[in-house]
């Protein structure tokens, strides 16, 4: 992680990785490998996973990837019989165009997904909600800092209903409007789920003051929903440096 690997280095890196038959977790985050680097990585992943290698976790955060490269990666991972348990593609500006492929990947066996700050926006969340597979095997998902607005809430509510093993959701700093709490709480009322933590901090228009019903939902005596106590009580998310 953070070794200043460039796109041209990935061919040699993958040759080394191919000799590591016991590799369980691969973290190439904070290296500007771009889509060209992912192009070298995909054949390695296909071969490793098809051969039954124990690789189960992949982090490719802040790698200067585009939606094109990540779409190719997701297509590869979704097509393999023994897919990853955990994937993080956070902090790559992918935009809403990656959502259609991402939602197909959600239908695989992935248990943990981090898509924080990839630029999904309202359109991306709408695609995720409308095309979400009927049964999703996720345990954890991080969708923070994607500026999805009310679309984020609708996606979360659908996910609650269709991911029975879901334990935690990070959805902070998504510009959620006040009515989002009612949308999410209505979903929680419809199902008995394993959800223990839904983090909505950093959404300045939300507060337990305006919707105290959030405290009705608890797991092991602790509130499931984490929301600001008062509107505007959290620092806003700002993508600018």
UniProtKB/TrEMBL annotation:
<dbReference type="InterPro" id="IPR001611">
    <property type="entry name" value="Leu-rich_rpt"/>
</dbReference>
<dbReference type="InterPro" id="IPR032675">
    <property type="entry name" value="LRR_dom_sf"/>
</dbReference>
<dbReference type="Pfam" id="PF13516">
    <property type="entry name" value="LRR_6"/>
</dbReference>
<protein>
    <submittedName>
        <fullName>Uncharacterized protein</fullName>
    </submittedName>
</protein>
């Amino acid at each position: 992680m953070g070794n200043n690997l460039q796109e041209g280095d990935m061919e040699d890196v993958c040759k080394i990785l191919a000799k590591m038959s016991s590799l369980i977790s691969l973290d190439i985050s904070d290296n500007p490998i771009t889509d060209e680097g992912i192009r070298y990585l995909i054949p390695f992943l296909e071969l490793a996973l098809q051969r039954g290698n124990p690789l189960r976790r992949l982090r490719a955060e802040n790698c200067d990837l585009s939606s094109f490269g990540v779409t190719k990666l997701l297509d590869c991972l979704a097509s393999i019989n023994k897919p990853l348990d955990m994937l993080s593609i956070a902090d790559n500006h992918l935009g809403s165009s990656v959502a259609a492929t991402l939602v197909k990947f959600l239908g695989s066996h992935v248990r943990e997904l981090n898509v924080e700050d990839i630029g999904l926006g309202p359109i991306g969340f709408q695609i995720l909600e409308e095309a979400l597979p009927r049964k999703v095997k996720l345990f954890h998902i991080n969708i923070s800092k994607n500026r999805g607005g009310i679309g984020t809430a609708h996606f979360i509510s659908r996910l609650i209903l269709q991911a029975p093993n879901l334990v935690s959701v990070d959805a902070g700093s998504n510009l959620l409007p006040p009515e989002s709490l009612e949308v999410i709480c209505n979903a929680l009322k419809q199902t008995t789920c394993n959800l223990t933590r839904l983090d909505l901090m950093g959404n300045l228009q939300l507060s337990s003051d305006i919707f105290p019903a959030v405290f009705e939902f608890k797991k092991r005596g602790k509130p499931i929903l984490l929301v600001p106590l008062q509107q505007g009580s959290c620092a806003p998310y700002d993508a600018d440096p």
